């Protein structure tokens, strides 16, 4: 793109992404290799701006990384005190008894309800104290590879390119951040990870990755309804048996409630709208009372990897490694990935420190370190649960997971597999059952655009569209003719809109609304949409508490 | 308590906003006013006729320096001794002068008030109107600018104030007035226009969007657009009103074929009067519009023009 | 010639401010903060003057909590040569800020002070004018064009309904309006270089300035929500209502 030569800076290690895995890796590196220069870039306007999670976190990895986290003021202020798993029917709900026995992985004793964004902001300040250079507002746009095929860093995107692709008045070329080792910590479905994966064929011999879409709202509710430490999850209504997902509600902080809904992106019904599912569950009697009289503060969405260890790709390649959820370390039945993401970052950091010392091309010991750690044992013990839901349906899956936990204790001699990518399982509109969603009431339920408004999302307007449709005619013949534009429903930010539906249907892309959840990159039936990084600092600006 | 109001005028005609400032001042005490500028004598006459004004202080100036902030600020500071409050309508001129006066008097000014709670306590918008702050001043004197739209202007006729002339002090010097150029553009600037006519998705195409011009001409209005209209290429993005476009707060905002997404409302909800024309009775714009017409805008547009011509 | 550019750290303009439930103010905890956009324009203007060879040194100043150093780093990444942080946890208001700046002007003796016309948090639009008043120096607010020549600066300034041109003897105070320029991005290489530029840290007490605010906040509330009005049947009725009831035409 740029004719102007790019400036270059050399580091020992460059980390792409300022979430829990990237920050933990940065901290660990400076702990074990204090002389190593570490640079971390983050596409959000600040650390935390693009972080979205429930979140209940297990402090295990944090304990190992920063044992004095309590004294250092880590924002883990609401211990879990009470938890419920609810099976919802349309009007009622059933609390699953003996949760700690049936779903032992759901045991949240010792865990904390946090704002993961605030937690990352805190981790970033620790990292900076340790000498990590952190640059938010810059997106990794390009993987640098030398002639020998070794990844040698990343280049940030050009700034000031106009919508027409031409440099404008305030054009500033990207910068090459060269490194001996590059860690990709981009979170679920990283755009550079996607390039590296193809380049080194990292997914060879593993199951396809499968994903979920989490859509979240942050509420401030009346004090008398607030029960700090309460953790609730639901399954069942309103999803059919073929669709994985459920709601969460966590009470924490100053009368804050984190509410959200995860939909497995292997859902078959093209008419399904994860956003509207999330909205309507708020009206269920199990949740509604908490929202009455409250106010919605923030909104956002993010995809998460649900494949488990069967879907984890090869983790290293010449010059770098994948860490955190871009590799797929989420513990799905536990609904937790922060501790595993951090642990993977720490182990990668140790492997990189070793490679630095011995001048190896590939930080290969990372894979072994993972396999030898509690992270692997933990993920291995739950490996069959999510695939069981895909195989046996929601009820059968629940039954299987109870059995797996109580009888087999995670030690089943078999492994269930994910056979299809999420984009392959969508069924045509003609055979899918239409779903009628209630109209937003403007008090408890809302429409997409007023929701996106609360994500503080912004992109510089004058820039090329960062959602690349490879072949527009394919959109018409596949997305429209067969599936009736599923992107207009699965996108939680109203990016995709069908214009002139009656006369000449075509796709309008409102890229400015994009909250960087990556669902379109995952679920588009023909894999015809490519999510690339927009100009740095674009995207949501999730506030504190998210 | 006696209050001094700095009056803005145009060639001797007192601006309506200044009469709103007088209305605000009347809530605090007796009102004297100050007029400056080349047409100060004419302005003083108009000001003397405003009911409720006790005394008009007319600044005589032959140097042309009354266009400058420095001497006028000094004069106001000199006159301040006799007053508890100094007020002006929020305008570029007042905002140029009054804070400087405040500095000379060691006072923290209170800009853009929309309500007066008592002699020390006022309400003013912060964060571009996203919040209203009630603030209490610890200063002995208050220097205040007033959001004109929040105070009903006093009448322009019926009073009989005395006129007193004072000379403009030299001021600190160093500043020379060169020229004033009033913009000749037929259309006012979007952000400062008194009336804005905006079009949205309902305008259908670039050609149709131009149909808003005759209406805007009749109202002396600026033209705006929603993001949908900009995204679809009806107009360029300098017309965009909304969260990522321009924030406007005119006296009258007419939304033609705009559904009223929250992103658009964020850019115009502070308008004094909102009119919406839309064929969809459920369009969210109607939830904020003072007057709405449900119908086809291409039918209503010419009717509106005809009505304006009739009575105008 | 030396230029002083004061910059303020405020809630980023993309963020919708949220009034705290207890009405004590606007939530700033965990909220993205950035340089006040008008101050960015002021910094840009100073940098352009330097690029033209008119200015030799640009000093950025911020008055506020320790985190304001991020804002100063941004100013230096844009092109300021060095910076001064006047650290205080007291709520700043234009009067106290102008007093701090006056003390700094007396110390640094800049020929030009360029400020943003207003901060987008308290919307005061006063600091530049007040500084000029305290210093007894000429002022040009709401600048849309700035030219420096022969020991004087000619400024075109925005006024209601047009523009006005004034000429000021130096040293002088200018406040920047929206159309003065389009600020550049702080590029990554420049952000990296800015880490090495000098930043001096002092307190208002070092300058002998009392920061006690004169305005106290009684309460902060969300503006009242607009209510739906009435639906009319005809253009004629609309025009009549606008004329006789709303009195806006």
From TrEMBL, chain A:
It catalyses: a ubiquinone + reduced [electron-transfer flavoprotein] = a ubiquinol + oxidized [electron-transfer flavoprotein] + H(+). Signal peptide: none annotated. Coiled coil: none annotated. PANTHER family: ELECTRON TRANSFER FLAVOPROTEIN-UBIQUINONE OXIDOREDUCTASE (PTHR10617), ELECTRON TRANSFER FLAVOPROTEIN-UBIQUINONE OXIDOREDUCTASE, MITOCHONDRIAL (PTHR10617:SF107). One of its GO terms (cellular component) is membrane. Its EC number is 1.5.5.1. It is found in: Membrane. Accepts electrons from ETF and reduces ubiquinone. Its cofactor is FAD; [4Fe-4S] cluster. InterPro entries: ETF-QO, ETF-QO/FixC_UQ-bd, ETF-QO/FixX_C, FAD/NAD-bd_sf. It comes from Komagataeibacter diospyri. Binds 1 [4Fe-4S] cluster. GO terms for molecular function: 4 iron, 4 sulfur cluster binding; electron-transferring-flavoprotein dehydrogenase activity; metal ion binding. Residues 442-542 form the ETF-QO/FixX C-terminal domain. The keyword ATP-binding does not apply. Its main location: membrane. This is Electron transfer flavoprotein-ubiquinone oxidoreductase. Residues 211-304 form the ETF-QO/FixC ubiquinone-binding domain. Keywords: Electron transport, FAD, Flavoprotein, Iron, Iron-sulfur, Membrane, Metal-binding, Oxidoreductase, Transit peptide, Transport, Ubiquinone. It is an enzyme of class 1 (oxidoreductase).
TrEMBL record, chain B:
InterPro entries: DHS-like_NAD/FAD-binding_dom (IPR029035), ETF_a/b_N (IPR014730), ETF_a/FixB (IPR001308), ETF_alpha_N (IPR033947), ETF_asu_C (IPR014731), ETF_asu_C_CS (IPR018206), Rossmann-like_a/b/a_fold (IPR014729). The keyword Flavoprotein applies. GO terms for molecular function: electron transfer activity; flavin adenine dinucleotide binding. FAD binds at residues 226-227, 240-244, 257-264, 278. Residues 3-181 form the Electron transfer flavoprotein alpha/beta-subunit N-terminal domain. Its cofactor is FAD. One of its GO terms (biological process) is fatty acid beta-oxidation using acyl-CoA dehydrogenase. Gene3D superfamilies: HUPs, TPP-binding domain. Transmembrane segments: none annotated. The keyword Flavoprotein applies. Pfam families: ETF, ETF_alpha. Binds 1 FAD per dimer. Keywords: Electron transport, FAD, Flavoprotein, Transport. The electron transfer flavoprotein serves as a specific electron acceptor for other dehydrogenases. It transfers the electrons to the main respiratory chain via ETF-ubiquinone oxidoreductase (ETF dehydrogenase). Belongs to the ETF alpha-subunit/FixB family. This is Electron transfer flavoprotein subunit alpha.
Automatic annotation (TrEMBL), chain C:
GO terms for molecular function: electron transfer activity. The keyword Translocase does not apply. Pfam families: ETF. The keyword Amino-acid biosynthesis does not apply. Residues 23-211 form the Electron transfer flavoprotein alpha/beta-subunit N-terminal domain. Keywords: Electron transport, Transport. GO terms for biological process: carboxylic acid catabolic process. It comes from the Bacteria. Its cofactor is AMP. The electron transfer flavoprotein serves as a specific electron acceptor for other dehydrogenases. It transfers the electrons to the main respiratory chain via ETF-ubiquinone oxidoreductase (ETF dehydrogenase). Heterodimer of an alpha and a beta subunit. Belongs to the ETF beta-subunit/FixA family. This is Electron transfer flavoprotein subunit beta. It comes from Komagataeibacter diospyri. The lineage of its organism: Bacteria, Pseudomonadati, Pseudomonadota, Alphaproteobacteria, Acetobacterales.
């Amino acid at each position: 793109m740029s004719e102007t030569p790019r400036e270059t800076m050399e580091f020992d290690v460059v980390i792409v992404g300022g979430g829990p895995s990237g920050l933990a890796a940065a901290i660990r590196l400076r702990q074990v290799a204090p002389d190593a220069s570490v640079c971390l870039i983050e596409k959000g306007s600040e650390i935390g701006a693009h972080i979205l999670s429930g979140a209940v976190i297990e402090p295990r990895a944090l304990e190992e990384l920063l044992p004095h986290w309590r004294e250092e003021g880590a924002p883990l202020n609401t211990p879990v005190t009470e938890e419920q798993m609810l099976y919802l029917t349309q009007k009622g709900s059933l609390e699953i008894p003996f949760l700690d026995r049936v779903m032992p992985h759901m045991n949240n004793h010792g865990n904390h309800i946090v704002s993961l964004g605030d937690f990352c902001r805190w981790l970033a300040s620790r990292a900076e104290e340790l000498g990590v250079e952190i640059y938010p507002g810059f997106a990794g746009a390009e993987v640098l590879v030398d002639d020998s095929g070794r990844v040698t860093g990343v280049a940030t995107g050009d700034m000031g390119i106009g919508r027409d692709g031409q440099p404008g008045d305030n054009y500033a070329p990207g910068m090459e951040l060269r490194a001996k080792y590059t860690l990709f910590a981009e979170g679920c479905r990283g755009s550079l990870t996607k390039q590296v994966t193809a380049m080194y064929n990292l997914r060879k011999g593993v199951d396809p990755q499968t994903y979920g879409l989490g859509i979240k709202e942050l509420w401030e509710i009346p004090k008398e309804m607030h029960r700090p430490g309460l953790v609730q999850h639901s399954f069942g209504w309103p999803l059919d048996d073929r669709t994985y997902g459920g709601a969460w509600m966590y009470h924490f902080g100053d009368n804050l409630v984190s509410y959200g809904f995860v939909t497995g992106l292997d859902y078959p019904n093209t008419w399904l709208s994860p956003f509207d599912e999330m909205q309507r569950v708020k009206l269920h009697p199990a949740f509604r009372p908490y929202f009455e009289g409250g106010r919605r503060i923030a909104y956002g969405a993010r995809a998460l990897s649900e494949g488990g260890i069967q879907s984890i790709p090869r983790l290293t390649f010449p010059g770098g490694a994948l860490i955190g959820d871009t590799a797929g370390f989420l513990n799905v039945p536990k609904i937790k990935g922060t501790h595993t993401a951090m642990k993977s970052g720490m182990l990668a950091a140790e492997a990189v420190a070793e490679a630095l010392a011995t001048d190896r091309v590939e930080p290969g010991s990372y894979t072994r370190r993972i396999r030898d750690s509690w992270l692997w044992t933990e993920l291995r013990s739950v490996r069959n649960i999510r695939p069981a839901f895909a195989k046996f349906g929601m009820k059968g899956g629940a039954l299987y997971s109870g059995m797996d936990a109580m009888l087999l204790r995670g030690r089943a001699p078999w492994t269930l597999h994910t056979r299809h990518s999420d984009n392959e399982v969508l069924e045509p509109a003609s055979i899918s059952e239409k779903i009628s969603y209630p109209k937003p009431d403007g008090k408890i339920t809302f429409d997409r655009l007023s929701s996106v408004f609360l994500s503080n999302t912004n992109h510089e307007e004058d820039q090329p569209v960062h959602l690349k449709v490879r072949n527009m005619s394919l959109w018409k013949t596949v997305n429209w003719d067969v599936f009736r534009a599923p992107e207009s429903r699965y996108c939680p930010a109203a990016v995709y809109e069908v214009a002139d539906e009656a006369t000449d249907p075509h796709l309008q892309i409102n890229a400015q609304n994009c909250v960087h959840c990556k669902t379109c990159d995952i679920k588009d039936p023909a894999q015809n949409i490519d999510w690339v990084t927009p100009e740095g600092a674009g995207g949501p600006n999730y506030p504190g508490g998210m | 308590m006696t209050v001094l109001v700095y009056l803005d005028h145009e060639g001797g005609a007192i601006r309506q906003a200044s009469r709103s400032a007088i209305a605000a001042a009347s809530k605090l005490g007796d009102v004297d006013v100050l007029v400056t500028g080349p047409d100060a004598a004419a302005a003083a006459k108009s000001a003397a006729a405003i009911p409720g004004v006790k005394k008009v202080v007319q600044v005589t100036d032959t140097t042309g320096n009354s266009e400058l902030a420095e001497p006028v600020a000094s004069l106001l500071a000199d006159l301040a001794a006799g007053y508890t409050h100094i007020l002006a309508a929020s305008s570029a001129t007042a905002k140029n002068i009054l804070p400087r006066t405040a500095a000379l008097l060691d006072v923290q000014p209170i800009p853009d008030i929309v309500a007066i709670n008592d002699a020390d306590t006022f309400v003013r918008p912060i964060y571009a109107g996203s919040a209203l702050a009630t603030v209490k001043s610890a200063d002995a004197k208050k220097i205040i600018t007033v959001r004109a739209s929040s105070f009903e202007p006093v009448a322009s006729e019926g009073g009989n104030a005395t006129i007193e002339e004072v000379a403009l002090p030299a001021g600190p010097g160093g500043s020379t007035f060169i020229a004033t150029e009033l913009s000749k553009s037929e259309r006012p600037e979007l952000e400062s226009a008194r009336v804005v006519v905006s079009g949205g998705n309902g305008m259908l195409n670039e050609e149709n969007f131009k149909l808003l011009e005759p209406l805007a001409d009749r109202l002396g209005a600026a033209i705006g657009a929603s993001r949908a209209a900009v995204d679809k290429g009806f107009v360029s993005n300098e017309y965009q009103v909304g969260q990522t476009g321009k924030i406007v707060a005119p006296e009258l905002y007419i939304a033609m074929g705009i559904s009223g997404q929250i992103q658009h409302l964020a850019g115009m909800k502070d308008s004094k009067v909102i009119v919406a024309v839309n064929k969809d009775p459920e369009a969210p714009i109607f939830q904020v519009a003072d007057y709405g017409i449900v119908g086809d805008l291409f039918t209503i547009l010419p009717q509106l023009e005809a009505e304006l011509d009739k009575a105008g | 010639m030396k230029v002083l550019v004061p910059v303020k750290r405020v809630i980023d303009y993309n963020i919708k401010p949220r009034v705290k439930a207890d009405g004590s103010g606007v939530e700033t905890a965990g909220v993205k903060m950035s340089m006040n956009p008008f101050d960015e324009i002021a910094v840009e203007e100073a940098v352009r003057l330097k690029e033209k060879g008119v200015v030799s040194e640009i000093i950025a100043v911020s008055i506020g909590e320790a985190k304001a150093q991020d804002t100063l780093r941004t100013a230096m990444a844009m092109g300021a040569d060095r910076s001064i942080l006047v650290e205080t946890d007291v709520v700043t208001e234009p009067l106290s800020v102008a007093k701090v700046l006056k003390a700094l002007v007396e110390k640094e003796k800049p020929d030009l002070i360029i400020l943003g016309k207003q901060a987008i948090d308290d919307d005061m639009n006063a600091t530049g004018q007040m500084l000029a008043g305290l210093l007894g120096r000429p002022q040009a607010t709401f600048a849309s064009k700035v030219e420096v020549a022969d020991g004087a600066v000619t400024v075109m300034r925005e006024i209601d309904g047009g523009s006005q041109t004034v000429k000021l003897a130096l040293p002088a105070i200018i406040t920047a309006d929206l159309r003065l320029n389009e600020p550049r991005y702080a590029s990554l290489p420049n952000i990296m270089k800015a880490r090495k530029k000098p930043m001096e840290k002092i307190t208002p007490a070092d300058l002998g300035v009392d920061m006690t605010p004169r305005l106290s906040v009684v309460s902060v509330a969300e503006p009242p929500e607009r209510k739906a009005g009435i639906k009319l049947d005809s253009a004629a009725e609309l025009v009549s209502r606008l004329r006789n009831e709303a009195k806006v035409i």
